[in-house]
Amino acid sequence: MEGERGMETLFQDGKEEVLQAWFMDDGEEDQRLPHHCEPKKFVSLDKLADLGIVTWRLNAENHENDEDLKKIREARGCSFVYTVDMHPERLPDYEAKLKSYFQEHRHTNEETSYCLEGSGYYDVRDKNDCWIRIAVKKGGMIVIPAGIYHRFTLDTSNYIKANLFLTKPVNSSSDRPGDDLSSRKETFETFLRKETDELGVEAR
Fold first, then answer.
1. Would the pTM count as exceeding 0.85?
2. The predicted structure's pLDDT at residue 201
């Protein structure tokens, strides 16, 4: 069963589950709910890698002095970092910004997100235009490749603090147009690549 294999690939070493992925249902309930299919259909890291999505599990308690994080940033050219602190009591226009982040869009450059506290969901389209939801918790790091349609939302905890690492000071974005499946395939052919991690930092 694909779902069971996915869970084994993600968490076979028994460590804390800071990254987990699954295919989403078509429900229109609160975006902050898990939106699992019935039965649940989990997605492995190999499946994410096929979409160009690279993930790591790092030590968020030591993120300021983490040598593994430094290696990743240097290898990917992530010279710019921005801290996002999303909480209803601390972020002005919280609901409006949450709605904005959930608008499907893509960037001209890759975006790397590292969860320092809290949790949230990154939703990405696969090559068949289906949504995959990636749950990220403290210590989880994820690379969203340039050109891939995605969106972000908090989960029901309503809180995340994360560092966004960029290769340029501004990562231009565009909301999804009314494109068809053929243009979606062109996007994957143009922008997405399957990467082999040669950093000496184990991708998880």
1. no
2. 57
Gap between the Cα atoms of 146 and 106, Å rounded: 7
CA dist., res. 192 & res. 190, Å (int): 6
d(CA 123, CA 138): 18
Q: Contact 134/79 with Cβ under 8 angstroms?
A: no
Please check the confidence at residue 156 and state whether its pLDDT lies above 90. yes
pLDDT band at 172 (very low <50, low <70, confident <90, very high): low
Paired tokens of 171: 């990562």
Residue 107 annotated in ligand binding: yes
Q: Where are any strands of DSSP class E within the chain?
A: 19-23, 54-57, 80-86, 105-107, 111-125, 131-137, 140-144, 150-154, 160-166, 173-175
Token pair for residue 188?
Answer: 């994957």
111 is in an annotated binding site: yes
Q: The domain 2-191 is classified under which CATH number: 2.60.120.10, 2.40.50.140, 1.25.40.10, 3.60.150.10? A: 2.60.120.10
Q: Is 95 one of the annotated binding-site residues? A: no
Nearest to 143 by CA among 111, 173, 167: 111
Q: List pLDDT tens digits, range 1-20.
A: 233 333 333 433 345 689 99
